[in-house]
Write a structure and sequence with these properties.
Immunoglobulin-like, alpha+beta, 4-stranded mixed sheet, 468 residues, 9 helices, 25% helix, 5-stranded antiparallel sheet, 3 domains
Amino acid sequence: MKSGFSRAFYSVIGFIVSNKITTAIILASIAGITAAAIIVTSVLQAPANVTLSGNNTNQTSSDMVSSIPQAPTSNEEETSSEEDASSEDAPVSSQQPTTSSKVEPVVPQKPVTPNTDFNYNSNMSYDNNVFLDALKYTGYKTDPRMWGSYKNYVLCSQKRGLGWLSNITYDDYGRSKGYETTANGLPDIHYFEQKGLVCASYVAYVYFNYLPNVAGIDTSMLPKADNPVLANDWYKAAKQWVNLGYSRYIDFTASDNGSIYQDLKLTVNEEIPIGSLIFLNNWYNRTDWSTHVSIYAGKVNGYHWVTHVGNENGPEMCAIERMNRLPHPQWMLAIVTPPSNIRFAPAIEVTVKDDKGKAIKDVEISVKSANGTVTNIGKTNANGKVTKEGLSYGKYEVIQKLPSGYTCDASTKTVTLTTKNNSLNTVTFVDKKETKKEDNQKPTESSEEKNENSSEVITDSSDTETDE
């Protein structure tokens, strides 16, 4: 070993001497390589940009954090055991670039005129809505305790022990896109149980699988995420919803006093519609890049609740105010309302026109449900139409108060409200103008004269007889 090393050493020296390589050149080469290594190391260790971009958030400068917080002292925690357990409630973040990235709004390719005349939040409450039904469909067992307050907030680590959670787990490999269906066209829950879901694919499952295939709500006109397993791609899609006029941003302020060990204080000046998309980003690197997405479920006991997928628990309930906790603390990025061009409750549109196709205005319309409840839905407008939103699915009688001067073969029609045509159900009445009866059999003047003459003759005759 020693002799071999010596031979190699002298061979190298001989090569240097024979090629006239000086010591200065060797030293210069070593110095250049060292300098390059230092530069590369500095770039890789540069801190990420923490500038928050985007005009749909209202964080104040006091809420911005430019450094990673230090570990808390004992007086910063109310109960260390609760804080440690609550850290499991934080969602697992999606992939994010190491440098800050600003996503420009997507310009719509085709201009559209959205229908904004209806209330997309009809008949939905925190304990009775189609989005909560979508969570139940995964196998999640709902319980009144899931709407917990601070003191009885049910932590993720406890939910499985309570038997609430489904058999769907978290999967960070993106093996399931959320669109998968069975041969019957229903969401393939068994496939999700095998492959798992992430926060983004859960949104794909709810909006583009459960809503159309189970609830019968048409969402086919909505732009989808290019990659359904990435939260930021759903953020891009939601920006398209806004640009198309289907959705809008809701303003808010958020603060946690720069601590990931305190509940986030979220202030919103209006009620957040159930079904809104809640986008969050990395607590440490607040750019216009979404690392987590969830679906709003309602405000209960002072908390804003969402359905989402986070950590190993799969689909579940969580409070936004607890998402700024370890191990993956998140920060509020944007609230985007549900698209107004899809209906979450049936509607009926009644049209009244005459037999020549002309609209009839101010016709009073009412509907009678199967249980006998009569609801006045208003009068027809200048186009002969009147619309009623937020009804329940089922059979109705549609009744028109026949306008003066018109007749109709049927002033009452039966209709069954279904989910077809985006839950808009139409009924049309065709009324006919009444025709005035003409006196075609009016007595002629000669007939009247004839009657008068006849009576005169009789009178004359009597007079003659009297004279005799």
